[in-house]
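Exercise 7b. Backbone tokens:
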């Protein structure tokens, strides 16, 4: 007995309940017409099948950066985008702090020498330096919080930012003092060594010893500049102690040492060039103002004009450099801990916005 001839492999396309000839079923109809608005190829944007979900092949981007390992352009664009997304909490806050510091420095420069001579000048310089350091610490901490919210696509007010940072200020100040002490110790050791060689031998021997020491000093400062650059973010966002933040920064930065160093140096170069470009017209105007009969008044006007130019440059560049540093921290966690998955989850649950940064 022979086998029956083979039949069709399955239901034919024209049978009831099957797709049209050679195709797939259309998406279901919706009130208002067929195909529905938003279906691919029709006005309305995204397909209703993918509405509320990220399309295939597109990185998740709830905020200013895509949630994946970041390129240098991602970091630079994000450092600008978070300023545009939160102008009041970035430029407004930076303007207030920079203006207070500039006015204090201006007053110290002209009033302290009149009050107590050289002693007053020294006290004034120290006061201005301390105020500048404290302002820098405050801005770096508060802008880090703004960046953390902007990564998740959310804004934050200046008051909310201060509430999150004020408890971390002692740790940030301690970290800054330790870094300044380390830098001063390295520079002092090199200077004392070169001076000792010059006193014991001659200038040629001091130069022979001093050139390699200076190169080693530059390399050591570059290492400190890189491996400790993520410690402020660990203090503010992860609520770590100073020693734990230092260890955390070294662990995150060491695998990406050259990348972090290069991006931070490039960001500093860009900020310096922008600040210089802004300050040049004010310097030129200050030189024009200084030409006059009475030397006292033009000198004050020249200093005022140049101070305004420097302040404007600082207001524009400080949020950018702080944003680059904070986004390098985010990128380091994404690369070492797959932190982007946690950020994706937090971007959909508002209650996790602040706790997502804490260590687990």
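Sequence design result:
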């Amino acid at each position: 007995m022979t086998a029956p001839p083979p039949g069709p492999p399955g239901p034919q396309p024209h049978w009831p309940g099957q797709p049209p000839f050679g195709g797939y079923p259309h998406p279901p109809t919706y009130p208002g017409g067929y195909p529905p608005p938003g279906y691919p190829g029709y006005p309305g944007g995204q397909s209703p099948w993918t509405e509320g979900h990220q399309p295939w092949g597109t990185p998740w981007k709830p905020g200013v950066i895509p949630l994946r390992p970041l390129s240098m352009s991602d970091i630079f664009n994000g450092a600008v985008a978070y300023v545009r997304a939160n102008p009041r909490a970035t430029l407004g806050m930076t303007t207030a702090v920079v203006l207070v510091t500039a006015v204090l420095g201006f007053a110290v420069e002209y009033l302290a020498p009149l009050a107590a001579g050289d002693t007053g000048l020294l006290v004034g310089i120290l006061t201005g330096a301390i105020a500048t350091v404290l302002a820098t610490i405050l801005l770096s901490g508060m802008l880090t919080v703004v960046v953390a919210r902007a990564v998740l696509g959310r804004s934050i007010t200046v008051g909310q930012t201060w509430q999150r940072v004020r408890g971390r200020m002692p740790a940030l100040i301690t970290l800054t003092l330790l870094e300044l002490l380390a830098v001063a110790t390295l520079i002092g050791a090199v200077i004392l060594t070169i001076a000792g060689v010059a006193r014991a031998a001659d200038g040629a021997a001091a130069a022979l010893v001093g050139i390699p020491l200076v190169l080693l000093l530059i390399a050591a400062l570059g290492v400190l500049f890189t491996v400790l650059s993520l410690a402020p973010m660990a203090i503010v966002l992860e609520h770590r102690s100073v020693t734990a933040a230092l260890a955390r920064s070294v662990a995150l930065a060491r695998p990406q040492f050259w990348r972090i160093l290069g991006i931070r140096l490039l960001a500093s170069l860009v900020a310096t060039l922008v600040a210089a470009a802004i300050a040049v017209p004010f310097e030129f105007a200050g030189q024009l103002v200084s030409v006059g009969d009475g030397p006292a008044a033009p000198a004050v006007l020249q200093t005022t004009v140049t101070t305004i130019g420097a302040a404007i440059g600082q207001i524009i560049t400080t949020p950018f450099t702080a944003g680059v540093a904070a986004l390098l921290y985010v990128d380091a966690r994404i690369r070492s801990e797959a932190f982007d998955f946690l950020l994706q989850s937090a971007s959909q649950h508002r209650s996790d916005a602040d706790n997502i940064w804490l260590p687990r």
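Instructor comment: The mean pLDDT is 80. The chain is about 70% helix and 0% strand.
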